[in-house]
Design a protein that fits this description.
By secondary structure, the protein is an alpha+beta fold. The protein is built from four helices and four strands. It has two domains: about 45 residues, no CATH class; about 90 residues, no CATH class.
């Protein structure tokens, strides 16, 4: 059976790879040039993270995505993931950074919580006194 996958971004290519591994013949169709400048994942400025609100389950889904990507990178013989990490900054109680931190805690995902002085020392672009903590 030939399956047509629309989109040559990371989601489309990952889907095509998975279908080929399952024994399908796959054709990929893209609406524009590759890389497509109009595509949502058409360049190298994308982020994947486990930091989501508690109770959503997205952190576990990201873990599954990392596992699938590890398998795909092994098949390709090289990884195209630049695992740099990220920084979140909480400025006030109940903000998104705090909600995301709670999600990391709920999922038992590792992160390093830094008080403002330590965060400013690590990331000098931050301004002391303008936030509660960073991780």
């Amino acid at each position: 059976m030939n399956v047509i996958v629309v989109g040559a971004g990371i989601a489309g290519l990952s889907t095509a790879w998975s279908l080929v591994k399952a024994g399908h013949s796959v054709s990929i169709v893209e609406q524009g040039p590759i890389p497509n400048p109009l595509a949502a994942s058409g360049d190298h400025h994308r982020i994947i993270r486990r930091a989501y609100r508690a109770g959503t389950g997205y952190g576990r889904l990201i873990t599954e995505a990392y596992q699938a990507w590890d398998e795909m990178w092994a098949d390709l013989g090289e990884s195209h993931l630049d695992a740099r990490g990220f920084v979140c900054i909480s400025r006030e109680p109940g903000d998104e950074a705090e909600e995301y931190r709670e999600g990391l805690e709920e999922g038992n995902f590792p992160f390093e919580l830094l008080e403002p002085d330590a965060a400013v020392e690590r990331w000098p672009f931050l301004e002391a006194g303008s936030f509660r903590y960073a991780y």
